[in-house]
Amino acid sequence: MSTRAPRAWTSGFAASLARGLLGGLTLVAIVFIGGFVVFAQSLARQEPTLTIKTEGVVALTGGSDRVIEAAAFLARGQAQRLLITGVNRATRSSVLAKLLPVSHELFNCCVDLGYEAQDTAGNARETRQWAQAHHLTRSLIVVTSNYHMPRALLELSAVLPGVELYPFPVVSEHLDVADWPFNLRVARLVGGEYVKYLGALFRMSVNRDADELDVTPLRRTDALP
Fold it and tell me: What is the per-residue pLDDT across 16-27, written as a single tens digit (0 to 9) for each?
């Protein structure tokens, strides 16, 4: 019995499988790169002008510009309270009080410092706890860097679904996100943030699917006689 036909079929199947895998990987790469370009181009190039008044303003730490801009909203009366989340445990409140453009009285009454958050998801959880503690249920201004804003809004929206979030992306004079096609340092920063954004999207999708599949088993008392 000839073995040429089975060998030819096996070889053809392997080649087809290889082409299919290569095509799939190519498609994934195209989607990934295309998504990165869209993400990079969507980052704010200029700081917006916000004139709205909200219940609170939250600053996600990572630079002094963020907390100063957030405190300015409080000082202008555009927010009733300020949360600075992710504060380094070694940072004293007296140091921040001197740095922020608010009076001593305003700092003592209306500025809250969160020391627990270690990442953006932690920032979101800390913000939710703060908002619940102070009954802030309608609107918040969110202050963070422009390249970090998409992930910050994603995390905050997940834990504060009923709260209107107004982004204020801080644009650093030392980093122009528009330079990502020409500057390797900027491309790495934006690319790293894009990967983290995708990771947060994936995690939320998995958690949502798990919640939908979490069906409470029938209790003995619910069973038919």
Answer: 777 777 777 888
3-state secondary structure of 165: strand
Q: By three-state DSSP, how is residue 116 classified?
A: coil
Band (pLDDT 50/70/90 cuts) for residue 13 is low
Residues 6+ apart with CB under 8 A from 44: 146, 149, 169, 171, 177
Residues 94-120, mean pLDDT to the nearest whole number: 93
> Nearest Cα to 102, choosing from 94, 111, 93?
111
Contact 214, 171 (CB under 8 A): no
Whole-angstrom CA distances from 208 to 107, 212, 214 are: 39, 6, 10
The per-residue pLDDT for 24 is 78
Write out pLDDT tens, residues 45-63.
999 999 999 999 999 987 7
Whose tokens are 């939320």? That residue is 204
Q: Per-domain residue ranges for the chain?
A: 54-171+183-194
Query: Crossing angle for the helix pair 149-159 and 184-213, nearest 10 degrees?
Result: 20
- Are 43 and 67 contacting, i.e. CB atoms less than 8 angstroms apart? no
Q: Is the pLDDT of residue 214 over 80?
A: no
DSSP state, 76?
A: T
**Tokens matching residue 17:** 């499988």
CATH topology (fold) of 54-171+183-194: Rossmann fold (3.40.50)
164 is written with which tokens?
């209107």
CB of 41 within 8 A of CB of 155? no
Q: What's the rounded mean pLDDT across residues 51-77?
A: 93
